Amino acid sequence: MATTTAPQQAAPASPGPMKRIILIVLIALIAAGAAGAGVWFFMSKRAPVAASAEAAPAAPAAPLFFPLESMTVNLQSDDGQQHFLRIGLTLKLGDAATQQILTDHMPEVRSRILLALSNHHPDELAPLEGKRALAEELKTLISDPTEKGSAPIRVQDVLFTEFVVQ
Predict the structure, then answer these.
(1) SS3 for the chain, per residue?
(2) Which of 59, 90, 113 is the last residue of a domain?
(3) Residue-averaged pLDDT of the chain
(4) Which phi and psi (to 5°) does residue 81 adopt?
(5) How far apart are CA 35 and CA 123, in angstroms?
(6) How many domains does the chain have?
(7) Is residue 115 part of a domain?
(8) Is 77 in the same domain as 108?
(9) d(Cα 161, Cα 47) in Å, to the nearest integer?
(10) Contact 154, 93 (CB under 8 A)
């Protein structure tokens, strides 16, 4: 019988244990680098936002506007004619607590305003400067404490919503 021997194919050499260790270490280094880069990327994006938020002053609270009912008052007159002032006011306040104080003492506040207005001449109120001076006078007048020993009422501004001199 004839025997033929077939050439035996060599089995592929399996990588040695050293190559496997190097491959695992290389994959671990790439994963750690990617994780570090991701952390740096997200932290660098958030750091300027946090720094700018700390550096920027807090936004002031929105003002509170408190409208008063329109008032009509007789003005002083030297010419013998009767002059009237119809005025509408809105107060600019800092907080709701001030609004509550004004609401609680509204009859007293309105009385102060009416007495102060009746003390003016129509000629004083006609120019723009006269109106500005009246607004400052009313602001000071309203800011006065309503009760002895209490703190002054904080009125930021007095705004005219109606102003008719007749």
Answers:
(1) CCCCCCCCCCCCCCCCHHHHHHHHHHHHHHHHHHHHHHHHHHHHHHHHHHHHHHHCCCCCCCCEEEECCCEEEEECCCCCCCEEEEEEEEEEECCHHHHHHHHHCHHHHHHHHHHHHCCCCHHHHCCHHHHHHHHHHHHHHHHCCCCCCCCCCCEEEEEEEEEEEC
(2) 59
(3) 82
(4) -85, 155
(5) 78
(6) 2
(7) yes
(8) yes
(9) 47
(10) yes
Residue 46 pLDDT > 60, yes or no? Answer: yes
Which residue type is seen at 104? D
- Work out the average pLDDT over 76-97: 87
**pLDDT of res. 159:** 92
CATH code (residue 80): 3.30.479
Does 64 score more than 60 pLDDT?
A: yes
Domain that holds residue 142: 64-165
Q: Is residue 29 part of a domain?
A: yes
Judgement on whether residues 42 and 99 belong to the same structural domain of the protein: no
Compute the C-alpha angle 12/14/18, nearest 5°.
Answer: 150
**Full-prediction pTM beyond 0.90?**
no
